Structure formats: structure tokens, C-alpha cells
Amino acid sequence: MPQVGAVPPCAAAIGKCRLTASDAWIDWCPAAIAAAASRRSPDATLERLLGLFESISRREAYLALLHEYPHALDRVADLMSASPWVAQYITQFPILLDELLDARTLLAKPDWTALQAGLRDSLATADGDIERQMDMLRHFKNTHTLHCVAQDLAGTLPLETLSDHLSDLATIILEEVLQLSWRGLRQRHRDNPLFAVVAYGKLGGKELGYASDLDIVFVYDDPAAEAAENYARLAQRINNWLTSVTSAGILYETDLRLRPDGVSGLLVTPLDTMRRYQLTASLAMGTPGADASTRRRRRHCHWPCFRTTPQRNPLCAAR
User: Fold this and answer.
1) Among 124, 163, 230, 274, which residue is least crowded by beta carbons within 10 Å?
2) Residue 255 gets which letter from DSSP?
3) Burial (0-12, 13-18, 19+ Cβ within 10 Å), 311
4) Phi and psi (nearest 5°) for 301?
């Protein structure tokens, strides 16, 4: 029997939101309660749904979308009940609600070649508008991360395939950011950079997770006198594109400390230096006193403009 004066869980969840008589989303409370009631954690789901409604209360288009497509609310409830991270992700980027309308698209196997071509075409329409291009990249990443989440929750993605998809998504982002960053430099000594982004850690092993950062190193193989200076600027620009916070969020946090000389070294590394470092590290992995982090490193390299397998990549010869 309920205790006298006890607050029902649903009422407690509603009470945590800042309700006023003018809130347009108050009418959605019954629908939210009904949607949350059938989920595994109804109270937490309801609280997250109400948090989403509160965040979009001034954006009538989103409320109208949920009104016009009631099945979208069920998909939102499924995602909200999955985890606090997923709920926060959707609440932070409500534009993703559009992606929930068509289950065929949401749950479709990604064609990364076609998706990258489409992204590149979209970026070309915003040539010269860096802020808009940054938002396009972030929306692309957020959209396809949500697709992965939906397929993960639907049980259609084995863990290894999920990691592959998230790693492929990051690779596309890196390739496009590299090209945009190079074209954006004022001083370029050649049309195409002799430059590579080398992935370590989760991305290097194609084990990327939803919130993983990128362990990357920048390498060049260019004898030009101005190469080191220009590529240092390029590396810094790439990192800025990845880590800058815009209204569409951030692309990725990065960890650049795995270069040969660590944080005390230059941001970019010549290919010969990197090769010697890799050979030395490879030998060190087999020694009894090798550092555990050194033994765990797995290498997979991403070169500009195209993808290459470790077998064809000279940097991976010591793998």
C-alpha cells in the first residue's frame, strides 16, 4: 500500500522539470508517460523524455514532427531507455529526431563509399564557409552514430561489426578533414600533401566505441625545405577541425601523445623517423621489460585520399 504523502515516481520525474503554464510540451506528458510505462526502466525513461521535450519546447517543428509521426515517439522512448548517454546525445542534438522517421534508412547497412561521396558533395556546396563545413561534418558523424546506436539496440549489429562501423565513420571524417585542412592553408608548396594520419589505440585496432577519442600521429614524407613547417600547420589545423566545439558539437577528442618523442616532440614526424621508431618499438614489444602500453599498441594507418591496408603500408612493415 502506498505510504501517505509518498510521491509517485512519474510525478517525481515531472517535478524535476521546470514546468510553467506556457510550456507547449506539457500536453505531451500523458504520451510520454504511456511510452515510458512499457520500457524496462519506466521512471528513468520518463525523466529523459521530459528532459527532451523541455529542450525542444521552443522549437515547434520538433513537437509537430512527433505529433505527425507517433511511431517516432516510440523509437525515441526505446533510445531514451537504453542509457543516459544515448538520452543525452539525442537531447543535445534534437535535429537527429528526423532520422527516426524511416526505419528502413535508420536500420540499413551503411554504404560508406556512397555516404562519403555524398558528404564530399555537400561540403563542396559550402566551400569557403568553414563554420558551415564544420557543422556538416558533425551532423554527418552524429547521424551515423545514431544509426549505429539504433542498430545496436535492435540487435542487428555484432560488437565487432559495430566497432568496424564506428571506425569506418572516423576514417571518413579524418580523410575529409585532412583535405579541407590542406586546402585551407594559405601557404602550400604542393597540390597534394605527402602526409598521413596514423591511427593507434581503439581506432588503430578498429575497436572504436561511441565515446572513444582518437589516438593519432601525423607523418610526412616530403623533402621540400618548407615541408616541416607547412605540415606542422596542417596537423594543428586538422586537430582544430576535430576538437573545436560548435553548435553541432565536437567531432572527436584527440590524443597526440603517441608520437615518437611524446608531448615534448614535434607535432609532425618524418617518415624515416617514424619507421625507425616503429622498428624499435616492435623489438621492444618482445622484451621482458617492455612497457605494457607498448605491448598493447596495434597499428593501422590511414593515408590521405585513399585507404590502404597494413600490408601495403610501409609504416606497418614492423607489425
Assistant:
1) 124
2) E
3) exposed
4) -110, 140
Are 241 and 227 within 8 A, CB to CB?
no
Question: What are 7's three cell numbers?
Answer: 510521491
Give the DSSP H or E segment for 198.
strand 195-200
| Residue whose C-alpha is closest to residue 65's, from 81, 48, 47, 53 | 53
Q: How far apart are the C-alpha atoms of 282 and 262, rounded to whole Å?
A: 17
Count CB atoms within 10 A of the CB of residue 81. Answer: 22
CB contact set of 81 (below 8 Å; sequence gap of 6+): 36, 39, 40, 41, 44, 45, 48
Quote the pTM value.
0.80
Contact 237, 186 (CB under 8 A): no
Contact 167, 207 (CB under 8 A): yes
> Which DSSP symbol is given to 24?
G
Helices 130-153 and 70-82: angle between axes, nearest 10 degrees: 80
Residues 218-268 pLDDT 10s: 999 999 999 999 999 999 999 999 999 999 999 999 999 988 877 777 899
